[in-house]
Amino acid sequence: MAQHVCPVWVGYLLLNPLRKLLENPERLLAPFITPGMTVLEPGCGMGFFTLPMARLVGASGKVVVVDLQETMLAKLRRRARRAGVDEVIETRLAQGDSLGVSDLGGQVDFAAAIHVIHELPNQELFFAEAYQALKPGGRLLAMEPKGHVTNEDFERSLALARRAGFVPDPQAQAGGGRQAVLQKQADGRF
Ligand SMILES: C[S@@+](CC[C@H](N)C(=O)[O-])C[C@H]1O[C@@H](n2cnc3c(N)ncnc32)[C@H](O)[C@@H]1O
After folding, report:
1. Which residues line ligand 1 (CB under 6 A)?
2. Burial of 104: CB neighbours in 10 Å, binned 0-12, 13-18, 19+
């Protein structure tokens, strides 16, 4: 089935600073990210969450972002340069259904998939690739928009995540709504 992909003009809307009143990147991400971490962000768009992630990992860390649309990545790079965090961010163009992150196997401390899972043509592959990229014990924040994604859709996605090997993170606060923190098991293989 053809999937809906976020158009570029919506990418610009998602940069609106007023969004911080509802989804504050620092508040959302600070509990998961510490300096020096390697972070993966599939479906980064123009980087509303990426720039704060780059600040949280600092100069010794790394943020790898993947998007299907080069226009999103180009805008993200320009914003990152202006903010002085471009050295920390690596942009990758998604390769078909795949994130193209097999080289990161077991290196990622934290991954954030924000408002993107429902756009993915192959969620099963997505969770398998994210699981493979994470370190054992690494966490994936999965967050979906309530407007587009029903509770049942989200539960179906979480079932696919469990099938890939993820378990709910027992220490993470339940975000409520369409938000979950998933963990690669400490003895998880990659
Ligand atoms: C609704 S936007 C969310 C952007 C960003 N996460 C945010 O919250 O501001 C979804 C993004 O996912 C990207 N996307 C859609 N399908 C994708 C795929 N198969 N692989 C990687 N990125 C994808 C779109 O191009 C778009 O930039």
Report:
1. 5-6, 11, 14, 42-45, 48-49, 66-69, 72, 94, 114-116, 119-120
2. buried
User: 6: CA distance to ligand 1 center in Å?
Assistant: 6
Ligand 1 center–CA 116 separation, angstroms:
5
Q: Whose CA is nearest to atom 20 of ligand 1?
A: 68
**pTM, rounded to two decimals:** 0.95
Q: For the chain, which domains are there? A: 40-183 (3.40.50.150)
Q: Which of 42, 162, 153 is nearest to 104 (CA)?
A: 42
Q: What is the dihedral of CA 119, 4, 49, 18, to 10 degrees?
A: -140
* pLDDT tens per residue, range 101-158: 999 999 999 999 999 999 999 999 999 999 999 999 999 999 999 988 999 999 999 9
- 52: nearest Cα among 79, 70, 74: 79
